[in-house]
Amino acid sequence: MMRSLYSGVSGLKVHQTGMDVIGNNIANVNTVGFKSQRTTFSELFYQTTQSASGPNAATQTGGQNAKQIGLGSSVAQISINITNEGGSQSTGNDTDLKINGQEFFVIQQSGTQYYTKAGNFTTDGFGNLVTGSGGYVMGYAAARDEVTGDFILQTDELRPISLYGEEYMLTAPAQTTTAKLTGNINSSDEDFTSEGLGYKTCDMYVYDSLGNTYNVQFKIEQVPDSTTDYVLSINKIFSGTEEVTTMGAVFNGGDASIPIQFDPTKGTVISEADFTLSIVEAGTTTPVPTFPTEIATNLGDMTNYGSDYSVVANRGDGTIENAGAGKGVGKMISVAIQTDGKVVSSYDNGDTLIIGQIAVAQFANAAGLEKVGDNLFASTLNSGSANVNEVTAFGDDMSSGVLEMSNVDLATEFTNMIVTQRGYQANSRVITTSDTMIEELLSLKR
């Protein structure tokens, strides 16, 4: 039989494989994170009918080239276009993620670790971040420190990332430990006269260690026959609108009141501006168990001007951080994923906590990864081991509410389809022409 028949058959096979790859690329033109493939061919072994020879001076003959007949073609490689990043598609879904770089998300499915560029994630019934096929998105989960009670990222090993885990839904309350009184006391206010109440009040809302809110009502009385001397004491303590009769308060460890003195010419505080307030059991100096810490209070910014009375008492030290303000029990209100992959949850008491960080993997030869379906890749000996870290460690970042689209170029695929079709057609002509030649040979005996 003619060798050209088998060469044509091999050509049909490789072009058919090429068309299979092109068809798969086009089928996945809208698959999230899909990486297109390319088929390349190589020639098959050659049959040598005459080896090459060099010139011979003794016989005065020149050299001759080898005479070889090729035996067709084969598929040399089906490579993945792994480095060409697909376009960005905005979705507005906070759990949709795109890595702006060559790294891959780390996925654990059925106990095996895989990798993907498809960031169309969702959450399962336990609040875990998962793929559409149920694989866990892996990273560094946060756990509560037994000593401080704070959440700390566990970077010792990869764990499933949880957005709505039960342990993250609430944050602990904190007792109010600092407070500040500000505003103006006007000695001419009618409430300080005999016709009025004889005193003014201001309310300070504080948290206990369980997150309960109490209203500590201060009483400010004017010292008789003085316009610059006053006495600060506790009027009542309320829980909501109900007066709490089992609680009281003392100043500086045991005093029932403290003096407030103003400079008669400047109207500023000249008495001791700092004092402590202890919430105690009524009639004692024993702190209430839910108020184990004294409340450090300052009134140095108060004034004694001729303007209206405006004294207010606020939790915290008055700085931007407002240290010591205390807080109630925090309930989760939202979760966001930052560009560095950190998962940040926000709570209605003002807390923001980092409850996890999504990890990514980088490979020495990402093109050596093996596709296993469901938009997943598996590492191979030729891809190298996964270098797993946070995305910023590789100089890249990730976007939330965005997906990486397929990197299939339809113009290229359709062009390759035409070339592949013509190649297939040409090889079929080789077979039919060879068959005609054999037919001519067989007709010689007629």
Give me the secondary-structure topology.
Elements: H1 3-27, E1 37-43, E2 46-50, E3 67-70, E4 73-80, E5 88-90, E6 97-100, E7 104-109, E8 112-116, E9 122-123, E10 129-130, E11 136-144, E12 151-153, E13 159-160, E14 170-171, E15 178-184, E16 199-207, E17 213-222, E18 229-239, E19 242-243, E20 247-251, E21 257-261, E22 274-281, E23 295-303, E24 312-315, E25 330-337, E26 342-347, E27 352-358, E28 360-362, E29 370-373, E30 376-378, E31 387-389, E32 397-400, E33 402-404, H2 410-442
Parallel strand pairs: 15-23
Antiparallel strand pairs: 1-4, 2-3, 5-33, 6-32, 7-8, 7-11, 7-28, 9-10, 11-12, 11-13, 11-27, 14-25, 15-24, 16-17, 17-18, 18-19, 18-21, 20-22, 22-23, 25-26, 26-27, 28-31, 29-30
Report on the structure:
The protein is mainly beta and 446 residues long. The chain has 3 domains: 3-82 and 407-445, no CATH class; 94-172 and 330-404, no CATH class; 178-241 and 253-269 and 294-315, no CATH class. Helix content is 13%, strand content 39%. The protein contains 2 helices and 33 strands. It has helices spanning 3-27, 410-442, and strands at residues 37-43, 46-50, 67-70, 73-80, 88-90, 97-100, 104-109, 112-116, 122-123, 129-130, 136-144, 151-153, 159-160, 170-171, 178-184, 199-207, 213-222, 229-239, 242-243, 247-251, 257-261, 274-281, 295-303, 312-315, 330-337, 342-347, 352-358, 360-362, 370-373, 376-378, 387-389, 397-400, 402-404. The strands form 9 sheets. Strands 7, 8, 11, 12, 13, 14, 25, 26, 27, 28 and 31 form an 11-stranded antiparallel beta sheet that branches. The chain has a 5-stranded mixed beta sheet with strand order 20-22-23-15-24, with no helix packed on it. The longest helix has 33 residues, at 410-442.
